[in-house]
Specification:
Number of domains: 1
Helix content: 25-40%
Radius of gyration: 17 Å
CATH class: Alpha Beta
Distance between the termini: 25 Å
Structural class: alpha/beta
CATH architecture: 3-Layer(aba) Sandwich
Number of strands: 7
Strand order of the largest sheet: 3-2-1-4-5-7-6
Largest sheet: 7 strands, mixed
Number of helices: 8
């Protein structure tokens, strides 16, 4: 992992950060400032806990508390909740959203932004968030742009994007990563798997020990 001045993470939902929690914890352990901008509270999520403990009225407040707990587990001290509506990011006014992101970038002057790869991230909110980040950075003068590293999950994405440009070994930060997953009790069915594994377990290390990203190359 390269040394960074400041890392800005832009994701749409509470729990999206779990998949790159090891990378964030690694940067924080090195003293790198990390800001996490979460666009929504995931209030339209389908999962309500297992066994059920949330409902459509209470879910936003529950997921906000889960997000705060996850950020603490990772070590993120600068958490920004932007207050957009879940499942509507693709319909947001692009200029207003771009202005929010441009303002964050101007304030923080990050050397690296982490987000989703637009078009290859399964959920419309993921794709729209990544696209908004790319637009905001693309409008900056070329010499002033931070690097943008994108996570991608869609089936067959490697056939189109090629192999990831960045692979981070985060096995030294599995405790933080697992705690981040466990904070989101309303959402993850992975909990039984996590609750029964030690941090030295080969299966746990194999499933969660590496985090991969593609560098977005501006045209």
């Amino acid at each position: 992992m390269e040394k960074e001045r400041h890392v800005l993470v832009v994701l749409p939902h509470p729990d999206d950060e779990t998949y790159l929690a090891g990378t964030l914890a690694a940067y924080i352990s090195r003293g790198t400032p990390v800001t996490y901008a979460c666009l929504t509270l995931g209030e339209m999520g389908r999962n309500m806990g297992n066994p059920l403990f949330a409902n459509r009225v209470t879910l936003a407040d529950i997921r906000k508390e889960e997000l705060l707990a996850s950020a603490r587990a990772i070590g993120v001290q600068d958490l920004r909740m932007l207050g957009l509506l879940d499942k509507t990011i693709e319909f947001e006014d692009s200029e207003l959203l771009g202005g929010k992101l441009a303002g964050l970038i101007a304030e923080l002057n990050p050397s690296l932004i982490l987000t989703f790869y637009p078009g290859y991230s399964v959920h419309p909110d993921h794709d729209a968030t990544g696209a908004a980040v790319i637009r905001a950075v693309g409008e900056m003068p070329e010499g002033q742009r931070p690097k943008v590293h994108c996570a991608a999950f869609s089936k067959g994405c490697r056939d189109i994007l090629g192999q990831p440009d960045v692979t981070n070994d985060v096995t030294d930060f599995l405790e933080s990563k697992v705690a981040s997953f466990q904070a989101h009790r309303s959402q993850f069915q992975l909990m039984v798997f996590l609750d029964n594994k030690s941090f030295d377990d080969p299966e746990l290390r194999g499933r969660l020990g590496k985090e991969q990203f593609w560098t977005y190359r501006f045209k």
